[in-house]
Amino acid sequence: MQAWINGQPATSIDVADRGLAYGDGLFETIKVSQGRAALLGRHLERLQEGCQRLMIPCEMQLLRRELDDYMQLIGNGVCKLIVTRGMGQRGYALPQQSVVQRILQASSFPQWPAAYAEQGIALFSCQLRLSQQPKLAGLKHLNRLEQVLARAEWSDSTYAEGALLDEQERVVDGVFSNLFIVQNQRLLTPDLRRCGVAGVMRAELLARAQAAGIEVQVKDIPRSEMLQADEIFTANSLYGIWPVRNYAGRCWAVGKMTRRLQQMIKDLTGE
Fold first, then answer.
1. One domain for residues 233 and 161
2. Based on the domain organization, do 142 and 265 belong to the same domain?
3. Final residue of a domain: which of 44, 74, 107?
4. Residue 98, number of CB atoms within 10 A of its CB
5. Contacts with 266 (C-beta within 8 Å, 6 or more apart), sequence order
6. Mean pLDDT per 10-residue run, the chain (271 residues)?
7. How many structural domains does the chain have?
8. Are 65 and 104 in contact (CB under 8 A)?
9. 144 and 263, same domain (yes or no)
10. Eight-class DSSP state of 139
C-alpha cells in the first residue's frame, strides 16, 4: 500500500528534511486489526509527549484524522507513523517556522513462530551499552543507531531478541521490546528515566497488573538480579509477551505469572 505524507499519497520526501539529516523526529509502530489500532491512545500519548519534549509543533487532531482514514485502508497489518520537524536550513539550529511532516507507511504483520509465545525464546546478551540521555529517555525518537548496532551483533536464528544494558550494567530493555522479571510474585521492570524506550505494551501491562492486584515495581535492575529472577519475559505492542527460557547461560521454565499476564492481554494479541 502506498505511503501517505501529510494526508496525501506520496513516495518521496525532501532531502532537506531534518528527520533524514538529524533524526529530528519521532515514530510509532502500530498494530492494526480490521481497520482499528491496538493501544492507539497510548501510542498517541507517547507521541504527544515526545513532540512536546522535542518542541515539534504537531497538530495531533489532524494527525488522528489522517491515521484513522489510513488504518481503514490498511485493514490488517502494521502502520508506521513518523513525525519529523520538516525541512530546515543547514545546521542544528531550529528553523524559525517548522512545517511538520506526517508520514504513514503500511506493511504486513510479521510472522513470528507460535513457539516464541508458547515455549519461550532465547535472549541474546548484547555487548553494546546504551548511553544515558534523560532528555530523550523513554521516547521513540528517530535515532535508532544503538539498536541497529546491537541487532547486528547476532545472526543466529536461535535468538529472537537481545537484552540491552547501560554502562553501569543495569538492565534497560530489549532491542525492540521491553523487559520484565518476576521475583517473589512481584512484577519488576527497569526504570527508563536515563535511557531506553517506554513501550506502550509496557505501560498497558503495568496498568493491568496493578488493577489485578499484582505488586508492580519500576526500579533499577542490575544484570545480576535479572539472572536470579524467577521468570523473565519480553513485551512488545505487536506480539504481546514472549517468555524468556534462556539468557546468558541460565534457563527458565515458562512461569505462572507470565502465563497469567499473557491471558490478561489476549484481547490485544488476538490469541
1. yes
2. yes
3. 107
4. 18
5. none
6. 93 92 96 94 97 95 96 95 91 88 96 96 98 97 97 97 98 98 97 98 98 98 97 97 97 97 90 53
7. 2
8. no
9. yes
10. -
Task: Give the model's pLDDT for residue 89.
Answer: 78
How far, in Å, are 2, 198, 255 from residue 217 at the CA level? 43, 15, 18
Same domain assignment for residues 126 and 228: yes
Of the candidates 192, 148, 194, 171, the residue with the CA atom closest to the CA atom of residue 244? 171
Q: Are residues 16 and 71 in the same domain?
A: yes
Q: What count of other Cβ atoms lies within 10 Å of the Cβ of residue 59?
A: 12
Which residues constitute the domain of residue 184? 114-269
Residue with cell 497538530: 59
Using CA atoms, how far apart are residues 139 and 128, in angstroms rounded to an integer? 19
CA atoms within 13 A on the CB side of 68: 7
Do 257 and 216 share a structural domain? yes
pLDDT at 98: 82
Residues 227 and 232: their CA atoms lie apart, in Å, by 9
Residues 254, 232: Cα–Cα separation, whole Å: 8
For 233, the grid coordinates are: 519475559
CA 183 to chain centre: 24
Cell numbers representing residue 199 in the block: 513501550
Q: Look-up: residue for cell 493501544? A: 39
Does residue 150 share a domain with residue 72?
no
- Identify the CA nearest to 102 among candidates 159, 163, 44, 150: 44
Element (H, E) at 233: strand 231-236
Q: What is the DSSP letter of 91?
A: S
CATH number of the domain that 128 lies in?
3.20.10.10
- Which pLDDT score, from 0 to 100, does residue 166 have? 98
C-alpha cell at 178: 521491553
pLDDT at 271: 53
